[in-house]
Amino acid sequence: MKFLLAKNTPDGFFTAVYQYYYAFKGAADGVISESSERGFLDEYVEIEENKALADKVKNGIIKSGGADFFDEITLALHGGEKNKEAAVFEYLKLFFKYGASVREMINNDAVRAFLDIKRKVQREIERLLGFIRLKETANGVYYGFFSSDNDILEYLAPEFRARFNTTSFVLHDYKRQKAAFYDGRKTQNININGKKTDAHIEIENMKINGKTKEYNEIENAEINGKTKEYNEIENTEINGKTKEHNEIENTEINGKTDDRRKIENAEINGKTDDHNEIENTEINGKTYKKNNKKSAEFYNGNYITYLPAAGNIEIELSGRETAYENLFKEYHKNIAINERENYKLQRAFAPKKYRHFMSEFEE
Fold first, then answer.
1. SS (H, E, C) 28-47
2. Where among 127, 154, 169 does a domain terminate?
């Protein structure tokens, strides 16, 4: 059997569909993707992605079936099934023959397989819109992480943007190591190039607020009209005084001298808290210890510099976030009626695979 091997993108799939009809004239047994299961004795022809050809197929689907029908196709292509492209292709073959009425052919195996994939994606989107918890980090950016069966980040991000349209946030799909960053004006997608460790994200150029910054190597940074060497600034002149860039033992602020490495106490709104840890948070007369989560720099004011890896989700939270999180846990604990516990029903509404990113289930 001969199959056309499409790239793992919607445009790659639609390009393969075009080639099936116009280059191979139907002389192939189907279309699959690079991630699909393969037979040992089957023949595979790799199809290079071509946006112009893909657009022809997309426009044809929209013209014949409407925008809603096309949206259903792209939704299914974001499914987590390994052979989803094959199922979508068989559904499209029926569509090209019978038109949009193919939706009603529920006795057909190909139609049922397609509808099953689409329903799974839709259901997970609805669930995660309720399960994902955005948490305020120490630098003010809200962070929410999740792991899903289906590739649905691009469907979740617009919904959260509509809810928090003036708030900067990051939605992190750590299973696929990608994220969406909303800076209060626009959403940008972040890919981590397959890295699975707690490494800085390799974003060569990220455009934020109309400016492009080179991520890996900024040899010279111009600040206030002056150019500084990026790697080594041996001496920095501040207020007419020269400091060694490696060790500034003492910094004078408002007439007080503090050790550079340890600022034991920071006065904020007349209250003094240890700058490393706010040990205790008081809610309704009860005291809670702050989550002592450490991380590398998460956000530097321009772009995301760090995302945690799967299995090691550690982001330093703000004191306010810790207080509200503890309050929510307390509410979740006390609202329950012990005599009416039903863990089977709870698993149906909140499956265990999603609980690791839900605050109320954290220990």
1. CCCEEECCCCCCCCCEEEEC
2. 127
Inside any domain, residue 326: yes
Whether residues 186 and 333 share a domain: the answer is yes
Q: Is the domain of 328 the same as that of 202? A: yes
* Domain end (from 127, 148, 177): 127
Distance from C-alpha of 23 to C-alpha of 14, rounded to nearest angstrom = 13
Compute CA 170 distance to the chain's CA centroid, rounded to the nearest angstrom.
Answer: 7
Residue 107: DSSP 8-state = T
- Give pLDDT tens digits for 32-66: 888 888 878 888 899 999 999 999 999 999 999 99
Average pLDDT, the chain: 75
Give the sheet arrangement for strand 31-33, strand by strand: 31-33, 2-6, 43-46
Q: Are residues 171 and 297 in the same domain?
A: yes
Contact (Cβ atoms closer than 8 angstroms) between residue 248 and residue 260: yes
- Number of domains the chain contains: 2
pLDDT at 120 over 70: yes
State both tokens at 139: 């630098």
Q: Write the CA distances from 36 to 7, 30, 32, 236, 252, integer angstroms.
A: 10, 12, 6, 56, 62
Whether residues 189 and 333 share a domain: the answer is: yes
pLDDT at 176: 86
Do residues 88 and 198 share a domain? no
On whether both 111 and 188 belong to a single domain, the answer is: no
Q: How far is CA 301 from the centre of its chain?
A: 19
Closest CA to 154 of 10, 26, 350, 32: 10
